[in-house]
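Consider the following assembly input.
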Amino acid sequence: MSAEPIIGEPEIAALVRERLPDIPFEASETKTYADLRVAPEHFLALVTGLRDDAELSFDLLRNIVALDMEEAGLEAKYQLYSFPHGHAVQITVAAPIPSCELPTLTGLYPAANWHEREAAEMAGLVFTGHPDPRNLLLEEDLRIHPLRKAHPLQKAEILQGIEDGPPGVEV
Amino acid sequence: MSIWPEERVATADSDLDTVDMTVNVGPQHPATHGVFRMVLTVDGELVVGCEPYIGYLHRGLEKLSENADYRQAMGWWDRTDYLAGMCCEGAYTMAVERLAGIEVPERAEYIRVIMMELSRINSHFMFLGAFGADVGSFGTSFVYAWRERERIYDLFEEVAGDRMFPTYFRIGGVTMDLPDNFESRCRWVLGSIKQGLEDFDGLLTGNEVFVERCKDLTPVTPEQAIAWGFTGPMLRATGVPWDIRKAEPYSVYPKIDFEIPVGLQGDVFDRFHVRLAECYQSVRIIEQCLEQMPEGRVLAPKLPKTLRINEGELYMPTEGTKGEYGVYLMARGGTNPYRAKLRSPSFCNLSALRELVVGSYVADAIIILGSLDIVLGEVDK
Amino acid sequence: MSDLPFGEVFFGLSWLDAIIRIVIVVLVMTLVVVYLTYGERKVVARFQMRLGPTRTGPIGLLQGFADAIKLLIKEDIRPRNADRWVFEFAPYLTFIPVFLVLVALPFARDWGVRNLALGMFFVFAVLGLNIVGVLMAGLGSGNKYALLGGVRAAAQMISYEIPLVVALLAVAMVAGTLDLNAIVAMQDTRPFILIQPLAFVIFFTAMLSELHRAPFDIPVAESEIVGGYFVEYSGIRWSMFQLAEYASLWAFSIFGSAIFLGGWQFPFGDDWGWGWQLVLTLIKSLIMIVLIFWVRATLPRLRMDQLMSFCWKALIEVSFALLLINGLFLYYDWPEPILAAVNWVGAILFLGGIYLRAARKPSTKNLVGSYKHAEVPNP
């Protein structure tokens, strides 16, 4: 029975389109939730709408996944859940290619703080306006992004405490 | 510097020149439950600032999973929430199965639920014992917890051959069927667990000193809890009856009758009490599973030798012991996931530590940290 | 009592006599401390369904010596930013007052180092000096945990000395003397706990606090400030703190059993020789010690402000009320049974108040039922 979708509600995309008609997005299905792919310039408006609209009211930010899609650049996926209505949705937003900048969600969801710090250090996304953009899991002065596909799994040597240059990766 | 807040206001206006002191707690400190570090800024006994530092146990779970076969990665997922290895295995295997569209035999689902609930009891007992020690009961609660945990671990060893990191689940079922005398052994362990819970109830819940310490300490409203991303017992303590086993059920949980214990005001005592009550519910679930469990295979037939998943992604939430243990997997062909991400409940619960701790006393900061019930393997991934 | 071997002055020289007696007491004390650590581990282990030490010697009887030897040969570490002299002298200053207290304690009739006419006063005065060493350790270690622990210890010990002293003064008023031997000798028919139970309750509570025992072990809280003021000490200096802790535990127990439980006098009085009197004192002090261990194994720790408010808002008031009641009874010369009855009522009211305060908390029965339940509809 585990192959059935848990809560796969295809109508959620239609509902979002109905409630937020001004925001363009592409809807698709994952194995569990509906996925809304939105352009970075509409991203903040979409999330604000999802959170504040009475019919949607997605009040829990569950998770942020930072993805390195190689040639397509970086993507971020946000899983949201609504306690009042019991529905969930995933938002995908592709970061602009050279800058990798996305707006921070800490103003909307305080829970985004650590998720964004993690995504920033692991994949190299830049969250503009983040109140505390330090490394979270890695060394504070380390500027490597281990979850980029280009980052090697092995042969990685982190150099610490060397004066003539920032710590980094030696391949 | 005074320990009474009223007087603190008074001294702040006077000419006395006081300096706040920073106290470094951890990474080696008995109260941090692992390698967690927080820097407290204290004014006398009052905490005025708190800066948590994590990452001492970061092992690169996600990177490793991306570079390993779907099956090989299982051992690492065990080691995230190392107090409840089976729950983590369950979340990961269910996510892979759903991604690959594999059907799991019903008996295997029941076995999994039994194991996951035993793990949950195990983890909650660890919390009860360690929390008692945080509040200061000189190891008595710790040893009480250890008796039951040892019996659960013995059961795991009989079933899976290992105690903490069984790697018992397989994609498509479980490794092997239960041993012959499992049901009677399990019922005996459940009886012992109930006795242990009664003991805890007697030792801590009714204890005047314990209640005095925990009651009304950092109450959290449901709105705050949701905004900070609390899930699991932390959220339920605030009175929100949200449990993924009910809200977005997976495995055989829809067939099982159990209740969601919720707290009244989300203070430290409620967090403790909800976890204690959850253990009773877990015992109920296991008892029902033992009754309902059908005979049959425990591993899906005709599984591919090498699991290849073409396209697809999913975010699979499960109710871990600390909250929503979610697994994000993305497949783009091949034997490895393209991206694996863990939504760890301890990580999200811990992220609000500063908000919870600031304004309390040093001694309270310790038990607030204890009441979050973090596992550093899960926080640091 | 000239037939007792220790009743008279050795060799007719009072200074030699004093030295011999002190050496005997110190040696006995060291042995007692070694076995108190062993005893605590054993007793607490039984409370916790464990066995405690079993490996060193028969049923672990030599464990204390093994620990002592290990501590003696350990390196004595001094942190670089510690204040050298303050740091190094602090252990002695906690440990000497405790041993000085032994001078005044009555172990049996005429079996003590010196029988002081102001024995009770001497015990208070000297035990109060303990705090100097604790504060020195806290301030001189150059460690913030130690600083917190030292400051906590100072606040706590100074506060709790007041109810302790006042409660004992109330007993001294009834006894009419501060001479410990005389107080013990007065209890030939009834121990003072029967006529001054409220004073005993206050004394026991304040004693737990003075000894830094649970639930008042805030200055040495392991899970918060990892040992408090002695966090930086190691080896011999650390063991001096331990020695002082257990020695004061024993000293307080002897002191309390002499004042409240009838010491060597009750129930057999002078019918028995000094040997049995010693045994009686030991048994009574052991009862108190086991009681302390029991509390330690059961109760969690209070918070600093709760501890302080319990002292200043409850204990001090009750102890002054006790002083007042005893004064009235003595002034008007009312009979003793009525004094005892009033005290019992006071003790029952005090303990009942604490019990009722605990009882107004959420019920522990029907754990699940006491919490509201919500059914979440399956989507």
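The mean pLDDT of chain C is 80. Ask yourself how this observation constrains the way the partners meet.
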